[in-house]
Queue: 2 jobs
Job 1
Amino acid sequence: MKIAVCIKRVPDMEGRFKIAASGTGIDEAGLKYDMSDFDGYAAEVAIQVTEKLGAGEVTVISLGPDVVQETLRKALSMGAHRAVQLKHDAPVSDGFAIATALAAEIKDGGYDLVMCGRMAVDTQNRSTGIFLAELLGLPVISAISQLNVDGGVVKARRELEGAYELIECPLPAVVTIDEGIARARYPSLKGIMAAKKKPLEVKPAQLGAVTYQLEKMELPAERAAGRIIGEGKDAVPELVRLLKEEAKVL
Amino acid sequence: MANILAFSETRLGELRRAGIETVTAARQVADATGGQVHAVLVGAPGVAQHAAKLAAHGADVVLVMEHESFANYNPEAIAATLAARLGGGYRSAFFAASAIGHDLVARVAAKMKLAYASDVTEFAFSGDAVAVAHPGYTNKIVQRFVLKATPALISLRAGAVLPVENAKAGTVEALAPAVDPTAVRVKVTLTEKAAGGKIDLGEAPVIVAGGRGLKEAANFKLVEDLAAAFGNAAVGATRAVTDDGWRPHSDQIGQTGRLVSPDLYIACGISGAIQHLAGMRTSKTIVAINKDKEAPIFKAADYGIVGDVMDVLPALTEAVKAAKAGA
Ligand SMILES: Cc1cc2nc3c(=O)[nH]c(=O)nc-3n(C[C@H](O)[C@H](O)[C@H](O)COP(=O)(O)OP(=O)(O)OC[C@H]3O[C@@H](n4cnc5c(N)ncnc54)[C@H](O)[C@@H]3O)c2cc1C
Ligand SMILES: Nc1ncnc2c1ncn2[C@@H]1O[C@H](COP(=O)(O)O)[C@@H](O)[C@H]1O
């Protein structure tokens, strides 16, 4: 089983963001970076599939400047077998342009399964995996929380809002990974050592046409500060009054 | 002017509120730019019964596609049909920013080789451009961009536009599938409401959410009782809780879970980690009940009660019941 996992390097979401002077990006000073959450889950799932089969190969692919090599090395240290950087130095947020470049790399790779995150936690576009599938002519199941690959068929589960569905499609296929399926493992020391010797190829990214441009980034309006209205169940009547009279939600 | 399409999402034969919000959004645009609103209803035979409701909310035409194979979501057949239809010349198409809506809008965009805007909170049409806002960086940043593609494909965040009645003719027309809906590669074999999830988390006006402060799965009964007292409330949870298997992952709210924006969000025994706040901080009114007065959730909450959920929740449930009975 050959699996490709597309990994995006994104800033750590814990911090407070500042908008850069350009107005179209964030101020990168002092930020830490790691793989996007769902991409970490995808890498983990892919590694688990090959571990279970005792065979197969996981290729991790990231499009971006040279710093993405650090993120790819992390995936290699988790247990991926080889990595490809699609080198492109300027930031791109256009899902089609990115998917075109990923498709060019994946097309003739003989992959049985291609994985992306459900969404990149920075852009939150939620499109790349589905665009990629269309460009590759493959079936796609998006936002899956369970995966079972057996006899050339993918069986998956997708969480809806307070409901779920079960979905199947034949291999080769693209899937995009949601919460609930796996957590990215922490690389072991042995894994980190082994990763240094694993192949990491660098190729120029063949980006597709850019279909939209980000015009502006803003911080959302802050919520007005709230207040503690009391302690214990004695505060309940006051809460109910406020919900009725002030918030008008009861 | 060209027409506007609204995809009206149904689940298990029921029309979702998000499926009406898209019609209201399309109506707003049509009223400003001209053109008609075409709402699309897809489902098993019988789904056409919802056409009247879509007409009442502003659909000039309701395009109905009924087939046994649409009892569950049928992504490939629906996407192919919508792409073909939209190719005939529409100004824009609205989808819900739901799990299904996100899947579908991306498939349609991919087929039409168009950019689209996902999870949109604001939109403004002018000439051949649509200015949109969509949240990024776990909802900490608003990203504004201009969509120049026609049709402009948009998935609309729940609550960004509220359903408004605006009766139109709602002429019903059959929409034929562009491909054989049984000859598809991707098949949904089952759709089921999650255990305990009586009300759709994506559209409930009130959400009562529980965290690790509930101590054990059985105590979620207190959360469910409060939700039941409201009558229109869904139950949500933190990742700590879904990871421990107390609640299904479809209940998880936050950065890696569902994004919700109800009128009222009641956080019970939830610390207010940044990843949880990412999923609910746009709720209109937030209430927090936590025994630790330093818990970060109190910074996000409009109203806080410092106390033990075991005491406060039953008292609140009784008070809400009484308020509802009096109302
Ligand atoms: C990459 C990543 C993604 C994540 N995504 C999400 C996500 O999508 N959603 C999410 O929710 N989390 C997410 N998390 C996890 C998040 O960081 C927190 O760990 C989680 O939200 C904590 O859940 P909690 O508030 O239930 O538990 P805790 O943080 O343990 O808080 C429990 C709270 O209950 C209070 N309490 C205890 N007993 C009582 C009592 N008897 N009465 C009243 N209060 C009581 C405590 O004071 C405490 O504040 C993510 C984490 C990471 C690293
Ligand atoms: N620059 C990139 N390099 C590799 N994979 C990417 C890149 N951008 C997006 N992806 C993949 O596409 C997924 C969805 O991204 P998005 O469509 O931007 O929300 C991510 O989770 C990744 O799997």
Job 2
Amino acid sequence: MDFSLSKEQQMIKEMVQDFAEREIKPIAFELDRDSRFPEEVFKKIGELGLLGIPFPEEYGGSGGDTISYAIAVEEIGKACGGTGLSYAAAVSLGSSPIYYFGTEEQKQKFLVPLVKGEALASFGLTEPNAGSDAGGTRTRAVLEGDEYVINGEKCWITNAGYAKTLTVTAVSGKDERGKNIISAFLVPTDTPGLTITSDYDKMGVRASNTSQIVLEDVRVPKENILGDPNKGFKQFLYTLDGGRISIAALAVGLAQAAFEKALQYSKERVQFGKPISQFQAIGFKLADMAMEIELARNMVYKAAWLKDQKKPFTKESAYAKLFATEMAFRTCNQAIQIHGGYGYMKEYEVERYLRDAKLLEIGEGTSEIQRLVISRQLGC
Amino acid sequence: MNIYVLLKRTFDTEEKITLSNGKINEDGAEFIINPYDEYAVEEAIQVRDAHGGEVTVVTVGNEEAEKQLRTALAMGADKAVLINIEDDVENGDQYTTAKILSEYLKDKDADLIIGGNVAIDGGSGQVGPRVAELLDIPYITTITKLTIEGQNVSVVRDVEGDSETIETQLPLLVTAQQGLNEPRYPSLPGIMKAKKKPLDELELDDLDLEEDDVEAKTKTIEIFLPPKKEAGRVLQGDLADQVKELTGLLRTEAKVI
């Protein structure tokens, strides 16, 4: 057992913290207010190599581990939840499936520019009628000669408005038992028939781009199928297992930001003749918040470590996501409570953390789905 | 070009500093590259990229300083040297550090040596000039601009908010002032590559130095925190009376006039 971070992990933490503090935090308020995706920040994130952390050098990555990646998500998320979400989605959902399941040719063509930070990619899974029940996917892909023709609709797709490539899931046939076979396809966003709109007006993570995708007779070459044609469903379940670690890390970052604000405020705010931090009612809240953050972070690191050790991590990443995101909601809520009336004002920023945190209990598998994943892992 | 950077690991003065038993509490303190030395690292990398050569970062300290050296390597320096004095020197001062650095540097044929103009912990600003003296090369402190053409060097230095341009030649030692450049963040590939870059560790023995050779010339008598800031006072009443009251207080209470 060794709970200390390696020198590289510490250096990454300090660098990202420094970068996020200087380049993201000062604009976080404005990004939320204007619901603006900070392209200029993503350019810098790319230049620093942060989009390539968990990928090997042969694809332009840094050869870092999942723990380093989780640390980066936490630090960016601490500065701005929306930017953190877009960062996490770009790596875990945009690049990872191509790295996990792509052919060498697909990796060279699609993954390398992503890892180098020259482009973003998105993962199109959710549909208006297929959310938690991804098996209910209605988008269809039909093989016509050398091309797949894809028709359907995807919703709430992170970063799609700025993506160069989409990984889209679609029903490509039926198995011998008559069940839908779901496959994944790589679709460049300049393909004719593809319409991407970003009109959603969201409660939180407003700096993150969220888009709707309509596919009308979108034609992609046969070789753009990603991984095993018959295992698209299993592939995205694996992709989501990895994504959960990053969403949990993001939750830890948001909670840490809210906690630090609340702690500072409670030491400065004087009522009844002393700082409110000295009242047990407030001090105990802060104790709970600090403890829960640390527990969640440990779970994130453990799930990331299991993934790096190539051990099963499905259950642990669900633990991490479920606990960290619900913890983040509680912590951000208490941070507002500690701030009292001031906390309800946007200027004090803690209300933004709560709005951002809410999404984390929904996106990449709701809390209910996490409980389902865990209970199935337990053999229920 | 053979470039050396003098780097110090310091505690982060933006964090809260506490004392115990007359010493600064190191537990829980955050340690960083002295911010002025970060400008030095950045400048060294820029000079190397423009003129070729190699950047070596040197520090005098203990094992813990390896992290700061690795960070400089991650920013782009080529080599690092840790002169570990943990076992040999108990209480060093600026003389100690300068003596060790100059012994290390004397046979290195350095063209350019860059340090920070001051360390934010001790704040003496002496090590750079002392090293130059001992090496018998010119030095310029608090520089905000460095231009090198062949052996000729043009430097702009900060003189209490004004600036002074100085022309000189290599070899040279300069110390960096804020404004010299904007230090880069170590990139991810940089951090991963830093692992594989050479980091040598030396002790006094390796420099043919005895403990007596580097014994401190100064003695620390006491370390204390500045007094807590008292609440301000707002004077009331007629302006003329306020001025009179203020001058009276400056004389009798603050005793500054």
